Amino acid sequence: MAGPQEGKSSEARKHKGISNGAGASQGQWGRAWEVDCFSLAAVIFLLLFAPLIVYYFIMSCDQHDCSLTEPVIDLFGGNTYLSDIWDKTPSLSWKAATIYILWVTFQVILYTLIPDFCHKFLPGYVGGIQEGAVTPAGIVNKYEINGLQAWIITHALWFANSYYFHWFTPTIIFDNWIPLLWCANILGYVVSTFAMIKAHLFPTNAKDCKFTGSYFYDYMMGIEFNPRIGKWFDFKLFFNGRPGIVAWTLINLSYAAKQQELYGQVTNSMILVNVLQGIYVLDFFWNEAWYLKTIDICHDHFGWYLGWGDCVWLPYLYTLQGLYLVYHPIQLSTANAVGILLLGLVGYYVFRMTNHQKDLFRRTDGNCKIWGKKPEYIECSYTSANGSKYYSKLLTSGFWGVARHFNYTGDLMGSLAYCLTCGFEHILPYFYIIYITILLVHRCIRDEHRCSSKYGKDWKRYTAAVPYRLIPGIF
């Protein structure tokens, strides 16, 4: 679904042009104006089965030690029934509801009421009031960028509780994981439904809405481009970054605490998961202002795909490695641990430096050095809906000369490292790399279709100069 990893994946906006936003036609933004039968079928499939997929994964760990095949074998073998599985599933509890309400409320307070102060003393960090990209209606929204601050405050309180106050056990998230799943689902559906109603009755900007006439498609993919309440509460930015991504590292810490409680130690594989995924989360919030110019914010509308996806899909399926390691603690050999760490760090370096090169090239209009040399690029142009002509530059050197989406390649390397910490006994922890691979390949195709329509023959020149999408010589 969405979120950092959409965050992570969407941190790679393919349009590397200098002036690629202001004059683009409205059709180049967001999802479709019309829905074909295939798209509608896919939407209905996801609406029906995505929640069941999440439930199945979490239930498999809770009742079958993270085996994805045992529940199916038991069902077809007559050893168990669906009612048995459901009866063994923890239900919604007042304790979980209280935890979740307090959590979301706390994140709303941090997001809306505490202006950012990190940018005042952290060199290189961009926070505070920042402008987003131009919307289809020509609006430039302003945002209070304070995600890093929210993450720091949240984790400072978490560690203060763990080592000093002892208000709650650090295993609280794991201990209430399935009851919290019901809470997350409720919030995901409530916010998605509210966004749908709001788009019809009181949109933030009517010109930034898209109606297809298909209820299911509009509900899933969203109608409003930037639904807001008041001046600062932006649904898209809040739910993309908070509460799911702030919780990501807390969830992993709770898994580590459960390992300590159950086995008397935290394995090096669990430490690797916490470190590598923690690096990504910190990178996300450090670059939150830059995230305003990515696909999630610049092109996607806000509907169930983002609302439910950020509340449920992201925190429950992106953290499967840590959950698996609670049930199957693995102490890696030193060589394997070092190899996985290096893979994750190299992947992160490729991911970050590729994006940095693009950003540097864009900010300086090509007046910079990449890998010690003047950058190479292709001049291209496009015409907007009103007939105005605009010019862009597509970078063809540095990492962008290796492959057209080489930041995705680094992303995939890091994602694979997360999964390798879990060994090869079960496929469940490898869902992440399978899902991210499908997501990024689809995003490659979707981005390039948009760019091909936008740049025409200039895009053909670009693909001739940089022939591979992800892996040189292969794809």
TrEMBL record:
One of its GO terms (molecular function) is cholesterol-5,6-oxide hydrolase activity. It is an enzyme of class 1 (oxidoreductase). GO terms for biological process: brassinosteroid biosynthetic process; cholesterol biosynthetic process via lathosterol; positive regulation of ferroptosis. The chain crosses the membrane at residues 37-58, 92-114, 148-165, 177-197, 302-320, 332-351. One of its GO terms (cellular component) is nuclear outer membrane. The keyword Isomerase does not apply. The keyword Secreted does not apply. It catalyses: cholesterol + NADP(+) = 7-dehydrocholesterol + NADPH + H(+); 7-dehydrodesmosterol + NADPH + H(+) = desmosterol + NADP(+). Pathway: Steroid biosynthesis; cholesterol biosynthesis. Residues 1-26 are annotated as: Disordered. Pfam families: ERG4_ERG24. Catalyzes the last step of the cholesterol synthesis pathway, which transforms cholesta-5,7-dien-3beta-ol (7-dehydrocholesterol,7-DHC) into cholesterol by reducing the C7-C8 double bond of its sterol core. Can also metabolize cholesta-5,7,24-trien-3beta-ol (7-dehydrodemosterol, 7-DHD) to desmosterol, which is then metabolized by the Delta(24)-sterol reductase (DHCR24) to cholesterol. Belongs to the ERG4/ERG24 family. This is 7-dehydrocholesterol reductase. It comes from Crocodylus porosus (Saltwater crocodile).
